[in-house]
Amino acid sequence: MRFIGYNYSMRKQFLGAIFLLLLTVIFAGCKRDKSLSIELDNNEPLALAVDIEWAVISEPYVIFRSIQEWNGKDSGHGKKGEVLQVKGYSYSSTNEKWVKFEKGYLPLKSVQIFTNKYQADKVGKGYSEE
User: Fold this and answer.
1) pTM assigned to the model
2) How far apart are CA 116 and CA 102, in angstroms?
């Protein structure tokens, strides 16, 4: 059964016109705001490295340990908001997870882990303003 005045080519042209209209509306609404820009600090080359994690101390005051045990010797001190590069992870004899830093080990519950330094810096600055 065929309708009067209707054929396949008219339908194709109509759908094409609708498609072009939609594309025009979509791209007309996407204007680049030149006032927005992202500036990356190139002074820290490891800040965005995918295989390096960063930590922020979340306790008011911490003591780094020389081994991943509570009875390990003191190897340094840290304060809330300090940003550190994670060197590795380890478990104690009581199966508690510890994080290794240059200064020594801290229990995981004393820090927050981030995938890049910029995130860690932002959180660390928030802690220092408290």
Assistant:
1) 0.64
2) 17
